[in-house]
Amino acid sequence: MNDAAPGAVPTAPGEPEPGISPFSALSGTFTSPANTFAGLVRRPTWWLPLLLWLAGIAVVVLVSTPKIDMERTFREMFEARAAKTGQTMSDQQIREMVARSDRTPAKAAGWALPTSALMFLFVTLVLWGGARASGSEARFVQVAAVWSHANLPNVVGLFVAIPILASLPEASETQFSIQKALKSNVGAFLPADAPVFLSSVASSVDLFSLGALALLVVGMKKLPAMPPGGAVAVPVVLWTIYVLGKAAIAAVFLG
Questions:
Q1: Mean pLDDT over all residues of the chain?
Q2: Would you state the pLDDT for residue 9?
Q3: CB atoms within 10 A of CB 83
Q4: CA separation, residue 211 to residues 68, 149, 162, 166 (Å)
Q5: What are the residues whose beta carbons fall under 8 Å from the beta carbon of 205, sequence distance 6 or more?
Q6: Would the pTM count as exceeding 0.85?
Q7: CA atoms of 253 and 255, how far apart (whole Å)
Q8: Distance separating alpha carbons of residues 98 and 238, to the nearest angstrom
Q9: Is the predicted pLDDT of residue 3 greater than 50, yes or no?
């Protein structure tokens, strides 16, 4: 039985095991994840899934921006806040906020791309720090290879969302309602008046995100000297902190 990762070149006995080609790693992440991540750790490559992720984000932003009614977004947000705190905003103030936040799809994509690239590096850095703190001898580039490929389910989610978003009428959604267009998370099935904290947590319980988390655990286990418990704890604990932190911030500013 051949346990080599897809795309790996066979080696003679005694020779170091090879890595895996960037294109073979894409399919191998889904068809043979354990062997693929082992090959990626031996010879790290991360640029192709990162480019696909950024391309997906760019297209989603370009497609979705015209579908969002910013004035309606601000009005609904401040109406909900007024119902709880009594603080109101005048029509003039809302229009001024809309004018300041108005972006063309190209400008929105131009802002989203570098932000997403920096976020990729930040997540890699945090995962690398967690792996090293757990006793792993992993290099930064090895963690980057693992994370970029573990993130491929989220890339799939982006491309699945594109035709759904494209089918929406112009200016028919708010920034919050458009997040429910793809019915892949629990939050998409909650009523509009559900508590903000609950809605945020539920939106993170997402088919594609959970798939990425599962692959990340598999990949972390292949890092040099990574304890099995740490390979599970690092991504799961960090994901939990992110989900709860995001929900807490949303509750403070939008609740």
A1: 91
A2: 46
A3: 8
A4: 28, 11, 19, 25
A5: 185, 186, 187
A6: yes
A7: 6
A8: 35
A9: no
**Could you tell me the two tokens for 98?**
């809309």
Which pLDDT score is estimated for 120?
Answer: 98
For the segment 183-223, what is each residue's pLDDT rounded down to a tens digit? Answer: 999 999 999 889 999 999 999 999 999 999 999 999 999 99
Q: Is the pLDDT at 83 greater than 90, yes or no?
A: no
What 3 state SS string does 72-113 have? Answer: HHHHHHHHHHHHHHCCCCCHHHHHHHHHHHCCCHHHHHHHHH
Say if residues 65 and 108 touch (Cβ distance below 8 Å): yes
Domain boundaries in the chain? 22-254
Polymer length in residues for the chain: 255
Q: Please give the angle made by the CA atoms of 148, 150 and 151, to the nearest 5 degrees.
A: 65
CA dist., res. 235 & res. 248, Å (int) = 20
Minimal CA–CA distance to 182: which of 150, 213, 152, 160?
Answer: 160
pLDDT band at 79 (very low <50, low <70, confident <90, very high): confident
Residue 66 vs residues 103, 111, 167, 194: alpha-carbon distances, Å: 9, 16, 12, 26
> Which among 19, 23, 31, 32 has a CA at the least distance from the CA of 52?
23
In angstroms, the CA 191 to CA 45 distance is: 42
Higher-scoring residue by pLDDT: 37, 104: 37
- Burial label, 169 (beta-carbon count in 10 A; 0-12, 13-18, 19+): exposed
Q: Judge whether residue 81 has pLDDT over 90.
A: no
119 burial (CB, 10 Å; 0-12 / 13-18 / 19+) is exposed
